[in-house]
Amino acid sequence: MTFASLLASEMERAELSDVMFANQAGLTRAQVHNLRTGRGEPTLATFVRLVRVLPGLAAILYTYTKNGTVTSRPRHGAKETTTRDRRPRKRP
Asked: Which of 18, 49, 65, 90 has the fewest Cβ atoms nearer than 10 Å?
């Protein structure tokens, strides 16, 4: 599920128009329209505003594996990392 489809379904479930949702989230109607139609992805600050109005949007942050465990979802093109993938930094 993409962020745009999740946003559209959550807005529909809450019976919010672009204008109503934008007013509640403190965004412009154009910003909401672009996010809902997949023409962009929110910044972290925008995402926080959206989740305050529609808490169900937080589900996009997680993906479920076949064995039922939850892992974080990587950003576009980013490699999903685990703690083993991170190496300690060398101090000068």
From this structure: 90
List, in order, residues 6 or more apart from 55 with CB less than 8 Å away: none
Class of domain 3-61: mainly alpha
State the Cα–Cα distance between residues 92 and 41, nearest whole angstrom: 38
Give the domain ranges of the chain. Answer: 3-61
Q: What is the C-alpha separation between 8 and 77, in angstroms, rounded?
A: 23
Cβ atoms of 18 and 33 closer than 8 Å? yes
Q: What is the pTM of this model?
A: 0.64
* Single-letter code of the amino acid located at 40: G
Element (H, E) at 64: strand 62-64
Q: Is 69 or 15 the better-scoring residue by pLDDT?
A: 15
